[in-house]
Amino acid sequence: MQEMIEIRWHGRGGQGVVTAARLLAEAAMEAGYFIQAFPDYGPERSGAPIRAYTRLSRSPISLHSPVKAPDLVIVLDETLLGDPSLLEGLKPDGWLIVNSALPPEFVRRRVGGYKGHLALLDATRIALEVLRRNLPNTPLLGALARLTGLFSLEDLTRHIRHHLAAKFGEDVVRANLEAVRRGFEEVRIDPGQASPGERPIEVPSGGMALPWFELPRGGLILDAGNAIAYRTGDWRTFRPVVEMEKCTHCLYCWLYCPDDAIRVAGGQFLGFDEAHCKGCGICAAVCPPKAIIMVEESRVVAAV
Amino acid sequence: MAATPLNLKVLSEKRTPLSGGHRLCAGCAEAIIVKQVLLAIDDPVVVINGTGCLEVSTTIFPYTAWRVPWIHVAFENTAAVAAGVEAAYRALIRRRAIPEDRRVVFVAFAGDGGTYDIGLQALSGALERGHKFLYVCLDNEGYMNTGIQRSSATPRGAWTTTTPVGAVMPGKPQWRKDLTGIIAAHRIPYVAQAAPSHWKDLMSKVRKAVAADGPAFLNVLADCNRGWRHDPALTLEVTRMAVETCYWPLFEVENGVWRLSYRPRRKLPITEYLKLQGRFAHLFQPEYQNLVAEIQAEVDRRWEELLRRCGEHV
Amino acid sequence: MGRWMALEGTEAVAYAMKQIAPDVVAAYPITPQTGIVQTFAQFVADGEVSTEFLQVESEHSALSACVGAAAAGARAMTATSSQGLALMWEILYIAAAMRLPVVMPVVNRALSAPINIHCDHSDSMGARDAGWIQIYSENAQEAYDNTLQAVRIAEHPQVRLPVMVMMDGFITSHAVERVWIEEDDAVRAFVGTYQPACTLLNLERPLTFGALDFYDYYFEHKRHQVEAMRRAKEAILEVAEDFARRFGRRYGLFETYRLEDAEVALVVLSSTAGTARVAVDNLRRLGWRVGLLKPRVYRPFPDHELIEALRHVRAIGVMDRAIAFGAMENGGPLWLDMLAAAYRHGLHIPIANYVFGLGGRDITPSEIEGIFTDLMQIAERGMITRPVTYVGVRGEAPLPTPAEWALWLPEATIAGD
Ligand SMILES: Cc1ncc(C[n+]2csc(CCOP(=O)(O)OP(=O)(O)O)c2C)c(N)n1
Ligand code: SF4
Ligand code: SF4
Ligand code: SF4
Ligand SMILES: [Mg+2]
Question: Where is the Pyruvate flavodoxin/ferredoxin oxidoreductase pyrimidine binding domain (chain C) (predicted)?
Fold first, then answer.
């Protein structure tokens, strides 16, 4: 192994991204590594895309800056595949690891024609089957043991047993070990063609960052309501779909949508603002004739 | 000019005060309440916002979701900042820097942390001095912005990260503070409790509040699906249950006269409210039966006290 | 025409406030600032000024209300001391960073504990890096003049920063002095009206004040703030120039006294500078070449100008009425700044620190003569043996007296051969 491995995790608030970054670090620590695990702290709320990082090294880590050029990018939620910053800085010989049941070609296409190393694991399904909860972290750890060779499946087993036995019964411990084993075995590896030195994708970072002398005085924002330019539509894991025939244009959905994502004109319900709808499901819940249903976003995406 | 009727078709023609693209959690009631409060007001508004989820999530530089003038200064001083803004408005009218007929409504939004706890002094001072503004407490019963810690609005028995459930602690040990009562004791012209599930009631209260001759206070139950631990789609259902169980009664105190705004046809047991939320999940284990009974008794006691104050039969 | 009035320092400032007639004043009483609030309250009660006067429930709310008022486009003022300033701490930084031109007279008082109502500079020195412009006044006249100028400096389009105007608690605040009060109209003409372009009450253009920054913008905003502080120096001089033109009293970044041919110099703020002048005269009579420099503007720190004014001396003494606990040698903040400035501008001479007067402890001309004596010895030796002296503290080795200096001198000359 190289001296230090850097990993970036992508997921959504509430999915255990931070825990995943930490679990991996702890497993590696048991195997004798020096570790770091830390999240990107932001104001983002449940459902918003968030990142966390893990650093593993054979020697003490004195670096305390964000991971800019990860060796591994791990995506816990396939609805994030369209995120243009997903591959930011990924080393040319690095790996993209995605929790997904989708075929590799499809994933590559969703990630803007990515050509590098790819590994896929349907960790959600394994978790649901074995743990009966959507906790994709555990199976992913198994996959990582296999992919990175950082620690053996035995190391990992010992760690998990040690970690869980104190708090949980033998059933829980065994189920977790099973999840790890299946992750180890079921990870699908799809090596890429990236040649050394070639960056898989170039993403401009920083957006509309202005130099200090062009900023308005005192932190003012001059442009009322300009948040409309900020997309929160990619927070969605479910999206509302309406059956227009049932709609009575009562506008309860408009009244209760927290994200101003119901389009209305002339007192008539028109549809949803996909750029901002976060998929909370409130519109569906309050719609008196049940004209709105919520469907899984990944299905919609896959169908595109 | 007649006020815009509280009719959704007509209201939907108005420009919403908060744009999409803010970063509150999916399903957050704070955004719903802001919309209802500000759509009820026809005059131009200026918003003063204390630190908390709403402030943090709606103005992340260089973006702002606010379509109305908005200011945030700190956590505990929302009412003091509002007082300064309102005083400035009066002064500027007097020196004719702004036209005399320019009507502006000042609306302060702050969380329960910023109101019940750290900001209570500044609020009490501003109310006593009689500034003309509407203060809306977005009461989600905890410090949600910092990751769900208890406040004095957190109900007894609720899990929060600083009142965790453990072998010797059943969540928060204390009863919640009766802030609405404390504010009513300031004898300001208008005080009310509302909930976004009862939108017409809420919006009518906002109108009475801004028409009042002096400070007005609205305590609004603001469901936080992340902290209360439930599916965001249930936000309005949970809120409605708070009202139907009489956990969160809707009432107003207008110039010292207490009036009940809504009386459920059949008062539901508190468990109907508790069972919807993960923060109370532990209460349904057998060892907490007594605590649930105590909670029910306390809800009943406070409800009956309110009925008596409002001159309703108990 | 203006007129002479016998006024206490706080009254002089309250007069300035009445003449400025801010749109909003929000304040809370604390000794020794109380005189400002009370006098101003009387002006309001008598209808002499039409300010919205908020008798808030705390200093934290006082400054918060000023921030709100200033953002709304109003000229806003408050005043405080000591614990009140400490309670404002959070909002000090916010007012500066939001670039709101609030003006605040500060009547310097020691900080608790032990609770003490008398003068020292611990309060305003603790706020020295909060982003406010700080101006120190020697007497009631200066406090009055500085308060008037502060409004112009704060609102200067190149600056837009809040300003604190300091005067010494009791020594200045409660002493009656002869103060020249300018004509109301002349003051009004001097301060002008505050008409900011971006305000919260501009309903046609809704603005967002006080948004959240992340690492992608916070630093740029701080850099922006630095620029304002940088430009403040020039603006302060520009305002002083206009003030002198209108009223004949001239102010700079600092003031010197018999410094031109001095061998040793003393740097000291506020009322003690007046006492030090007496000491300088006493020693000059004995033929000692001693001089004085009184900084007026402490933030922004006029490092270059100060050092140039002192470049010809052989030793400098810096008097501090505060301790920067845990800083180098547990000296005072002014000393630390002077050392840094000397290093930065290549002045390599001994610079000693004299911490004095904490909690209102008296400082007399003879004690300051002792300081000068110590400085003469330092200049002669070319080195410092005691970098920080706590002047007049029981249990500390006392300073030499001028008489001892006469005995010591020949011996030193021999030793120096
Ligand atoms: C003086 C101060 N103390 C603590 C904080 C940290 N803080 C920011 S928001 C917050 C809690 C907010 O709770 P609440 O007012 O109920 O608003 P919510 O986020 O729940 O809507 C805390 C503790 C702060 N910003 N300022
Ligand atoms: S709530 Fe349902 S019926 Fe009413 S307008 Fe919306 S979609 Fe139509
Ligand atoms: S799911 Fe419905 S209520 Fe929720 S954000 Fe989307 S449109 Fe609005
Ligand atoms: S944590 Fe709660 S209050 Fe805060 S944004 Fe999320 S749902 Fe709203
Ligand atoms: Mg709260």
Answer: 16-239
- Please tell me if the CB atom of residue B144 comes closer than 6 angstroms to any atom of ligand 4: yes
Q: Tokens in use for C232?
A: 């403040």
Q: What residue in A sits closest to B31 (Cα-Cα)?
A: A258
> Cα–Cα distance between C187 and B36 in angstroms, integer?
48
Helix ranges (H only) for B162-198 are 179-184
> If we measure between CA atoms, which residue out of B85, B143, B86, B134 comes closest to residue B114?
B143
Q: What is the pLDDT of residue A20?
A: 87
Of the listed ligands, the closest to the CA of B29 is 4
A282 lines ligand 2 (CB under 6 A): no
Give me the phi and psi of C205, to 5 degrees please: -125, 90
Judgement on whether residues C157 and C281 belong to the same structural domain of the protein: no
DSSP H helices, chain A, are: 17-30, 104-110, 123-126, 137-148, 153-165, 170-186, 252-256, 282-286, 297-303
Which residue's alpha carbon is at the smallest distance from atom 4 of ligand 4?
B53
Query: Count of domains in chain C?
Result: 2
Chains contacting B (3 or more CB pairs within 8 Å): A, C
- Partner residues linked to A38 by β-bridges: A53
Q: What atom in ligand 3 is closest to the CA of residue A253?
A: 3
Whether pTM exceeds 0.80: yes
Report the SS3 class of residue C45.
Answer: helix
- Report the alpha-carbon distance of residue A254 to residue B89 in Å, rounded: 34
* Residue C136 in tokens: 């120190």
C-beta A289 within 6 A of ligand 2: yes
Structural domains for chain A: 4-195 (3.40.920.10), 231-303 (3.30.70.20)
Query: How far is ligand 5, taken at its centre, from the CA of residue B140, in Å?
Result: 5
Q: Starting at the edge strand that comes first in sequence, how are the strands of the sheet with C52-55 ordered?
A: C52-55, C24-27, C76-77, C103-108, C163-168, C133-136, C297-299
Paired residues of C315 in beta bridges: C264
> Diameter of chain A by CA atoms?
66
For residue B149, give the DSSP letter: B
How far apart, in whole angstroms, are the C-alpha atoms of residue B137 and residue B82? 14
Closest listed residue to residue C83, CA positions, set C55, C62, C54, C97:
C62
ipTM (interface pTM): 0.97
Which residues of chain C, if any, have pLDDT below 50?
Answer: 411-417
In terms of Cα–Cα distance, which of B129, B91, B88, B125 is closest to B106?
B88
Cis ω before C157 (30° cut-off from 0):
no
- Ligand 2 geometric centre to CA of A253 (Å): 6
- C386, with CB counted inside 10 A (0-12, 13-18, 19+), is middle
Domain span holding position C265: 254-414
Structural domain ending residue among the three candidates C247, C266, C285:
C247
The residue type at B9:
K
- When CB atoms are compared, the residue of B71, B91, B125 closest to C57 is B125
Ligand that lies nearest to the alpha carbon of residue B72, given by its number in the listed order = 1
B223 DSSP assignment: -
Q: Are residues C117 and C204 in the same domain?
A: yes
Q: Could you tell me what percent of chain A has a pLDDT over 70?
A: 91
| Any atom of ligand 2 within 6 Å of the Cβ of A258 | no
Q: How far apart are CA B280 and CA B165, in angstroms?
A: 10
Contact C119, C357 (CB under 8 A): yes
CATH number of the domain that residue C326 is part of? 3.40.50.920
| Amino acid letter, B79 | A
Report long-range pairs for A103-108 (Cβ below 8 Å, ≥24 apart): A104/A188, A104/A190, A106/A302, A107/A78, A107/A81
Q: Tell me the mean pLDDT in the region B117-125.
A: 98
Taking only residues 11 to 50 of chain B, the set having a beta carbon closer than 8 angstroms to any beta carbon of chain A reads 11-13, 16, 18-32, 35-36
pLDDT at residue C298, as a whole number: 98
